[in-house]
Amino acid sequence: MREKGLEKLNNNKEKKKKNHVPFRMNMLFFIVFLLFSLLILRLGVIQIVYGEDAKREVERTEDITVNKSVPRGKIFDRKHRLIVDNEPKKAITYTVPNQFDQKETLKTARELAKLIDKDTDKITERDKIDYWLMTHPDEAAKKVSKAELEKYKDKNDEIYKLQRDRVTKEELASLTKEDLEVLAIYREFTGGYALTQQIVKNEDVSTEEYAQVSERLAELPGVDTTTDWERKYTYKDTLRSILGNVSNGLPSEKMDYYMSRGYSRNDRVGKSYIELQYEDVLRGQKEKIKNITRSGSIIESKVLHEGQRGKDLVLTIDMELQREVDKIIEEELRKTKMRGGTGLLDRAFVTMMDPHTGEILAMSGKQYAYDEDEGRYKFSDFASGNFTTSYVVGSSVKGASVLTGYMTGVIAPHSVLLDEPIVIKGSKPKSSHFNRGGYIYINDHTALVRSSNVYMYKIAIAIGDGQYRRGQSLIIDKEKVFRIMREHFSQFGLGIRTGIDLPGEQIGFRGSVEQAVGGNALDFAIGQYDSYTPLQLAQYVSTIANGGYRMEPHIVKEIRDPSNEKEEMGPLSQEIQPKVLNRINAQDAWIQRVRGAFWGVFHEANGTGRAFASEPYRPAGKTGTAETVDRGTGVWNLSLVAFAPYDNPEVAISIVVPSAYVKGGSPNTINSDIGKRVLKAYFDLKNKKDDSSKEDNEEEEEEE
User: Fold this and answer.
1) Residue 348's closest CA among 65, 657, 134?
2) C-alpha count within 13 angstroms, C-beta hemisphere, residue 142
3) With CB atoms 3.0 to 4.6 Å apart as the test, which of 221, 286, 368, 387 could cross-link to 535 if both were Cys?
4) First CA to last CA across the chain, in angstroms?
5) Percent of the chain scored above 70 by pLDDT?
6) Do residues 506 and 389 touch, judged by C-beta distance below 8 A?
7) Is the pLDDT of residue 542 over 50?
8) pLDDT in tens, 149-160
């Protein structure tokens, strides 16, 4: 009985247990059913109620307007000969998407690297480290310990810095040539802003590369093939240092400045001289493009506004004359150096200017130096040295000294002074080259013709209320001399900016007044204390040639709108008018007195420029010789200022030849030799043009 009772009890327990299991399973199934029902209900609501909104959001497009660069304006000479042009060249570009995806960008870079050869010279070590970390994520993760991850868990930059610092040289060396090409392309891809076109390659793009990329554009998102351009110089190195250079992309030091003015990072801008000075004119109007994007990717591009290349510049320079002057300087430098005694002679400068308008007709500078790349001495263009370098020029500025004497009232036309050795206590005697020990009374005209130093010394002494007694200390107000003479010299453009429309102009070196002695004030009057640029000398002699008006020199004559016709000039946009900066405070008769003396320098028996006497173009001018020091060696600088024809000047020139010969060596006349030849070249070209015009007129008359 007992056993039967126990069996019955066990059966009841199993029955209860079996009843609980189905109940729990049913509850679980019921809960799952409810969750699925809620999910289906939610999906139904989204599909039915919000479906259209979601669809519109996915399909939503954005219109983003960007600018595309255009070629720069061209540059012509005064005869409308093309100097600087734009040469088209094949280019491969990449437009950065609005939503950057590192993996997709790297994938595109790898595919493009299979089609083109990319220069890797610009890759830095930092670029290699970043690329290695990006392409080796597992190894990169192992470079940081768990403790460091915990320490810098909210500072990803610190963690990345640790990883960068721990990349070894061996790991970087594992990057193959193919890896570096991919990196170089990826570097170009990521170098710009969203939806801006980046140049990936525009140098030496082969026809095969261009064709292969063009055929696979659908597989290369963001990549495109287009036509780029580069500056082409028709006359090669002629005037090259003044034409200036153009950047590849915005200069980093001026990035913010240009970006604030609507430039893009990869835009080209003028870096120096004409290209820089006239950047706003040459840059042109960008092409406006509307990029239509969906989900951050460009699906279509539309041109909103056709771009227009920059406006053209017409220079005042005559390139035929410019090339002739360059040739003359090279020949005379080479010839003079062969004579010996000219160990430091390595450069010469010529500025030719219209004295009535300030137009620069030619600006030539040549430097003879050793070229490390070519392993030989060669001439290079240094035209910019006419306004960026300065030299003591000697007697060529004595015309300004005499006119300063007139304007201050210490002398008058025909004033006679005694040319004698000036002996100051404690100093070496000072004298004129033509009169080392005698006593000769001369007037202002003769003082200029024969280049009297003493006459100029005595002008300076009078300006400084000085008293000269032979063998005694010179009593003079040196501060007054420097102040007054510099003020008057500046009326001619000496020692101040000329106003030329080019950046980087120097005003020259002003000798110290505080450290000067009385004798230095006298040296100033003969051009042996302050230094001047060749351009300042040209402005100075032009002021005397045209009757006292200091004209602002300029190198751009016209600005023209771009022409659709390749061979024709566009319509005139702006003509640069002559500008008078000031009129010197001198009577016409005083100026004519100095002009007459300049004629005498070239044509009278005792003139220092007698070499010009037989020239048919009737020149007038003043020579200059200055004793100075170059690289620790005593040397003589030679200079020349001139204008022609004397009666109605149409050209003024300045010539400066630093270190023409060493002290104690044989003198030479390279300044006069260059001067005669460049003036002859100017008038020969003018006569050639006149003869050509005459022949054309005769042919037209015969046809009529």
Assistant:
1) 657
2) 4
3) 387
4) 155
5) 87
6) yes
7) yes
8) 888 887 888 888
Residue-wise pLDDT for 376-435, tens only, equals 889 999 999 999 999 999 999 999 999 999 999 999 999 999 999 999 998 999 999 999
Which amino acid, one-letter code, is at 615? E
Q: What are phi and psi of 497, to 5 degrees?
A: -70, 135
Contact 495, 530 (CB under 8 A): yes
Single-letter amino acid, residue 24:
R
Task: Tokens for 25, please give them.
Answer: 């399973």
- Tell me which residue of 308, 276, 275, 304 sits closest to 292, measured CA to CA: 304
pLDDT attached to residue 47: 63
**Residue 299 pLDDT grade (very low, low, confident, very high; cuts 50, 70, 90):** low
Angle, helices 478-490/453-463, rounded to nearest 10 degrees? 110
Give the separation between CA 444 and CA 416, rounded to whole angstroms: 7
- Among 558, 561, 555, smallest CA distance to 576 is for 558
Once rounded to an integer, what is the mean pLDDT over residues 253-257? 87
What pLDDT digit, counting tens, does each position of 432-474 carry? 999 999 999 999 999 999 999 999 999 999 999 999 999 999 9
Looking at 241, 364, 395, 659, which residue is catalytic? 395
pLDDT band for position 50 (cuts 50, 70, 90): low
Three-state DSSP string of 103-145: HHHHHHHHHHHCCCCCCCCCCCHHHHHHHHHHHCHHHHHHCCC
- b or e along 603-614 (b: 16 or more beta carbons within 10 Å of the residue's beta carbon)? bbeebbbebbee
Residue 395 bears catalytic tag:
yes
Closest CA to 404 of 355, 467, 462: 462
pLDDT at 36: 74
pTM: 0.82
Give the per-residue pLDDT at 235.
Answer: 96
**Alpha helices (runs of H) in 343-494, residue ranges in sequence order:** 385-388, 398-408, 444-449, 453-463, 478-490
Q: Which amino acid is at 29?
A: F
pLDDT at residue number 511: 92
Neighbours of 648 (CB within 10 A): 9
For residue range 586-620, what is the model confidence (pLDDT) as tens digits?
Answer: 999 999 999 999 999 999 999 999 999 999 999 99
Which residue type does 208 have?
A: E
Q: How far apart are CA 595 and CA 139, in angstroms?
A: 84
> In b/e form, how buried is each residue of 563-596, taking b as 16+ CB within 10 angstroms?
eeeeeebbeeeeebeeeebeebebeeebbebbbe
Distance of CA 395 to the CA centre of its chain: 33
464 within 8 A of 477, measured Cβ to Cβ? yes
Helix (H, G, I), strand (E, B) or coil at 38: helix
Residue 448's CB is within 10 A of a number of other CB atoms, namely 27
Query: Cβ distance 439 to 486 under 8 Å?
Result: no
